[in-house]
Design a protein that fits this description.
Number of strands: 2
Organism: Novosphingobium kunmingense
Protein name: DNA-binding MarR family transcriptional regulator
InterPro entries: HTH-type_Bedaq_tolerance (IPR052526), HTH_MarR-typ (IPR000835), Tscrpt_reg_MarR-type_CS (IPR023187), WH-like_DNA-bd_sf (IPR036388), WH_DNA-bd_sf (IPR036390)
CATH class: Mainly Alpha
Keywords: DNA-binding, Transcription, Transcription regulation
Mean pLDDT: 89
Number of helices: 7
GO molecular function: DNA binding; DNA-binding transcription factor activity
Order of helices and strands: HHHHEEHHH
CATH topology: Arc Repressor Mutant, subunit A
Oligomer: single chain
Length: about 150
């Protein structure tokens, strides 16, 4: 049996990098300035309805400080806006700005092109299988505590 732990991590990273680099290239061709990978991930999270900075940090598995710094950069660039949460005046929520919405529309079109290209390269069934596997609930990450619990049951 091969050591899948070593062989799957690098291709997963390459797949992410392939999409991110393709997305950045297509957006540059559409006239957009480049954004960092953390900024891309924040835009995706906010686009999926994750609005509070703490939730964004938790979803992206980054510190609140990192999320705050990335959000501040994006506010300065005009991609997102911070507003007061109507349910909790002490909290802020993140919304995509009008400029961010235009970029998001171009991003969706670019992702469609990238998926179409990937289907041409590796086949529709392979892309569908990959998507299905990545969308499954993998459960929590394995920890020493989880491993010990598994051995006890």
């Amino acid at each position: 049996m091969t050591d899948q732990g070593e062989t799957i991590l690098i291709p997963l990273f390459w797949a992410f990098a392939w999409f991110d680099e393709g997305l950045q290239t297509l957006l540059r061709e559409a006239g957009w300035d480049a954004v960092s990978r953390p900024q891309t991930m924040v835009l995706i999270a906010v686009g999926q309805g994750i609005a509070r900075p703490a939730e964004i940090a938790r979803t992206l598995a980054i510190t609140r400080q990192s999320a705050g710094a990335t959000i501040a950069e994006m506010v300065a660039a005009g991609l997102i806006e911070l507003t007061t949460d109507p349910d909790d005046r002490r909290a802020k929520i993140v919304r995509i700005s009008a400029e961010g919405e235009r970029r998001r529309a171009d991003s969706r079109a670019a992702m469609t092109r990238l998926v179409d290209e990937l289907e041409q390269r590796i086949g529709k069934d392979s892309v569908a299988g990959l998507s299905a596997a990545l969308r499954r609930d993998w459960g929590p990450p394995l920890t020493v505590r989880n491993k010990i619990r598994e051995k006890q049951t």
